[in-house]
């Protein structure tokens, strides 16, 4: 009997560890999101033009970006400071919280006019087509412009986006940024 209960306990401990490191706990993330709300809102709808909407983004993407800011692979005067003291568990919890919301994008323009080289991955409405692709819907043109130029200059690096951005002119960057900023976005909080 003793051996059996020890095994059950061991299993429970393992499951708990897997949850905190992998999936993250959205309820803890919501509490931690108090540190993020002045810029990203509690539900991930940004409050300042230079901050992106992060509600409803894939958890893996949010966690990867927070880790990149913490470790210096991606740098920003505000986010590098914010991410510096976050543990892996806090990152997983924050990612779980912000990812738990439902986003709806509404296009006011003809989808046929969307930037052709972006739609396969980011959609005409700026909702990422697969799990590793972030949403661009309703990001301000300042934000999208800044990120594309960061990929182009090498300040931000990604195997897919770096070569794409290196082939874009300033005008093409501005056109894509304007397109996605014209989409309207609503974020429905999960709790
Ligand atoms: C003082 C304002 C501010 C605070 C507070 C803040 N952020 Fe940010 N965040 C920004 C800005 C500005 C950017 C854009 C950085 C850039 O241009 O690369 C950003 C970018 C991000 C990104 C990258 C999103 C993407 O689409 O690539 C994530 C994820 C993020 N923040 C999460 C958080 C979380 C979680 C917190 C709270 C723990 C937080 N931020 C607190 C301003 C803030
Ligand atoms: C083959 C797929 C693919 C194509 C095509 C593509 N992207 Fe991306 N894009 C990605 C992925 C994957 C990321 C996430 C990069 C990361 O993890 O840092 C990304 C990230 C971005 C970001 C950063 C978003 C954020 O929240 O910080 C912007 C801006 C962006 N893409 C704009 C564009 C534009 C504009 C085009 C068309 C000119 C385009 N992308 C074409 C896959 C793609």
UniProtKB/TrEMBL annotation:
Keywords tagged on the record: Electron transport, Heme, Iron, Metal-binding, Signal, Transport
PROSITE patterns in alphabetical order: CYTC (PS51007)
A molecular-function term among this protein's GO annotations: metal ion binding
Protein name: Cytochrome c4
Domain Cytochrome c residue range list: 24-102, 105-184
Entries under SUPFAM superfamilies matching the protein: Cytochrome c
Signal peptide: 1-17
Lineage: Bacteria, Pseudomonadati, Pseudomonadota, Alphaproteobacteria, Rhodobacterales
InterPro entries listed in its UniProt record: Cyt_c-like_dom, Cyt_c-like_dom_sf, Cytochrome_c_Oxidase_Subunit
Coiled-coil stretches noted in the UniProt entry, renumbered to this chain: none
Record Pfam families: Cytochrome_CBB3
């Amino acid at each position: 009997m003793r051996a059996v209960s020890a095994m059950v306990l061991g299993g429970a401990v393992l499951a708990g560890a897997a949850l905190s490191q992998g999936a993250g706990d959205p309820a803890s993330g919501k509490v931690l999101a108090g540190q993020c709300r002045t810029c990203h809102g509690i539900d991930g709808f940004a409050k300042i033009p230079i901050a992106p909407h992060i509600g409803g983004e894939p958890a893996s993407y949010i966690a990867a970006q927070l880790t990149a800011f913490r470790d210096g692979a991606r740098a920003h005067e505000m986010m590098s400071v914010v991410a510096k003291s976050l543990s892996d568990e806090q990152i997983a919890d924050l990612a779980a919280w912000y990812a738990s919301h439902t986003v709806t994008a509404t296009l006011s323009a003809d989808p046929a006019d969307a930037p052709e080289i972006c739609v396969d991955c980011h959609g005409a409405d700026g909702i990422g087509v697969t799990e590793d692709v972030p949403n661009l819907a309703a990001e301000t043109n300042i934000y999208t412009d800044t990120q594309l130029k960061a990929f182009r200059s090498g300040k931000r690096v990604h195997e897919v986006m770096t070569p794409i951005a290196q082939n874009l002119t300033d005008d093409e960057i501005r056109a894509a940024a304007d397109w996605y900023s014209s989409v309207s976005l609503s974020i429905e909080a999960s709790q």
